[in-house]
Amino acid sequence: MKGFLLLSAIACLVAGCCSPRPLISLLPEEIKAAPPLASSGSFELVHCPPGVPHRSVLQEVERTFHAVHSLLGTPARARLVRIALFTPNEPTGRHILRARCSRDEHAAFMNFREGWIVVVGDWEKTRAHTDLRHETAHQALCALTPDRFPPFWLSEGIATLFESGADDNGRPKPNPPRRRNAARLVGWRRRIRLSGLIDRHRPAYINADAYARSWALTIHLAQNNPHALRHFLKVWQSKNLSPGETFVQTVLADTQLEQLEQAVSTTMR
Ligand SMILES: [Zn+2]
Question: Which domains does the chain have, with CATH numbers?
Answer without folding.
Answer: 4-144 (3.40.30), 176-268 (no CATH)
